[in-house]
Specification:
Layout: H1 2-10, H2 15-22, H3 26-34, H4 56-63, H5 73-83, H6 90-99
Length: 136
């Protein structure tokens, strides 16, 4: 971006207007010119402990298997550890399930509740529907 502003300056543009046109502050441009090294915070490299793309389908396969489809990822990791198998910790299981849109209630133990609708009284004529009035 600094090269674009430099080119605009060579062609006679005002520095302030050139920075505004690109959407950066004048101080940002000057900082780039003084020190061209990117000093923004945050990691620019990939996480070395993150699951590889080849491992994600295996996690989904395990989570949707008949043995584990009704339990939480923390319990899946515990069950796999008891069998001597390690795929990933619980947190990557949650991340993979969330990215696949499968992070919701995973059991069949909660039945859908039916909504109670109180009975309605409909008057079809005068003095057809009476209500109780408490007089003290």
């Amino acid at each position: 971006m600094a090269a674009i502003i430099d080119k605009a300056l060579e062609e006679g543009a005002c520095l302030t207007f050139a920075c505004d046109a690109i959407g950066i502050h004048l101080r940002t441009y000057r900082r780039w010119k003084e020190d061209p090294v990117d000093r923004r915070k945050g990691s620019q490299k990939a996480n070395s402990t993150a699951l590889r793309e080849q491992e994600r389908p295996h996690v989904l396969e395990v989570c949707t298997s008949s043995k584990y489809r009704d339990i939480a990822p923390t319990e899946i990791v515990t069950g796999l550890a008891e069998e001597g198998v390690y795929i990933a910790s619980a947190r990557p299981f949650y991340r993979v399930l969330r990215s696949a849109g499968m992070l919701n209630h995973r059991g069949n133990d909660h039945l859908a509740r039916t909504l109670y609708i109180p009975p309605e009284f409909k008057a079809t004529g005068p003095v057809d529907d009476w209500s109780c009035e408490i007089v003290g």
